[in-house]
Design goal:
Layout (H helix, E strand, L loop, with lengths): L1 E2 L2 H21 L6 E7 L3 H17 L2 E7 L5 H13 L5 E4 L9 H7 L11 H8 L8 H12 L8 E5 L6 H9 L8 E5 L6 H7 L2 E4 L16 E5 L3 E4 L7 E4 L4 H4 L3 E4 L6 H20 L1
Parallel strand pairs: 1-11, 2-3, 2-4, 5-6, 5-7, 7-8, 8-11
Antiparallel strand pairs: 9-10
Bound molecules: guanine.
Length: about 290
């Protein structure tokens, strides 16, 4: 069993990005600048956004955190977004999801300038991705492709079962892995909460991407020997033995699945750090495009 080490791989990526930023600086080019918009005080979202800002500092980017109260109106948020679209120093930005219930998420995502949409969530980028055109790829699927590629996991002709059809992970992952690309050319099945024969499908899978958000859902009896497992889940599960009162659990029961796996991502330290590294990569790309 080989661990797909997202922490190490993301560190390698960050070093590569840092070297590109250093070179930009010594040649008088613009420093990449990422902004993050956070509405409210959701604990997990605050942790993610802070990690993104810290990663920016590490690679030498400028970063701006726009921290807005939970009762921010949709109109005020849209004004902020307009400001970011028009700010020439901002190369790319993200609006951390989920947003409070009173804000229309679709309306917000549509307001982001696609050229600054380093999350790849705008319909223009989703459409371009689907049509194999240059675009910003969403960071989590992009990170998974990068991990599969760097560990030379064969995907061509393989059966990939993706559990989950979210706009952020499952749906784009299914499109990308079926395309003609590195870590692509796979036969893809998208399973979800209405799938009736999930165990049967998983037992046929060469690669399983678990992205449904139910802790330790995928168990050893659901996978075949030699499977590759990508665990996208990261849920806070109450654990009184921990100082902070919770532990982080993936969608995969690592204990029963890992002995059967050829490759598997750990949680934490698998997909999570890759997401951040790919966001940085997209921001560098956005900056280079604006040169
Ligand atoms: N919430 C969960 N994942 C993501 C992500 O990749 N980007 C943003 N903006 N919000 C998220």
């Amino acid at each position: 069993m080989t661990l797909l080490d997202g922490k190490k791989t993301s560190n390698d990526l960050k070093e590569e990005i840092k070297a590109s930023v250093d070179l930009r600086k010594t040649t008088g080019k613009k420093t990449p600048h990422l902004a993050a918009v956070l509405v409210g005080t959701d604990g997990a979202s605050m942790t993610y956004v802070n990690s993104k800002v810290k990663a920016c500092e590490y690679v030498g980017f400028s970063s701006t955190l726009l921290d807005m109260p939970a009762d921010t109106s949709e109109a005020t948020l849209l004004e902020k977004i307009e400001g970011l679209n028009n700010d020439p120093d901002i190369d790319g930005y993200i609006v951390q999801l989920p947003l409070p219930k009173h804000i229309d998420e679709q309306k917000v995502l549509m307001a982001v300038n696609p050229d600054k949409d380093v999350d790849g969530f705008h319909p223009t980028n989703v459409g371009r991705m689907t049509l194999d055109m240059p675009c910003f790829l969403p960071a989590t699927p992009y990170g998974i492709l990068e991990l599969l590629e760097r560990y030379k996991v064969e995907t061509a002709g393989k059966h990939v079962v993706i559990i989950g059809r979210s706009h952020i992970v499952g749906r784009p992952m299914s499109i990308l892995m079926s395309q003609k690309r590195p870590a692509g050319n796979a036969t893809v099945t998208v399973a979800h909460s209405r799938t009736s024969n999930l165990k049967e499908l998983c037992l046929q899978a060469d690669i399983i991407v678990a992205a449904l958000g139910i802790p330790e859902f995928l168990t050893g009896d659901m996978v075949k020997d030699g499977v590759t497992i990508i665990d996208v889940g990261i849920t806070r599960v109450e654990d009184t033995s921990k100082k902070r009162g919770y532990r982080l659990a993936g969608d995969v029961d690592f204990k029963s699945v890992s002995p059967k796996a050829a490759f598997i991502t750990p949680v934490p330290g698998g997909v999570g750090p890759m997401t951040i590294a790919m966001l940085l990569k997209n921001t560098l790309l956005a900056c280079e495009r604006r040169d």
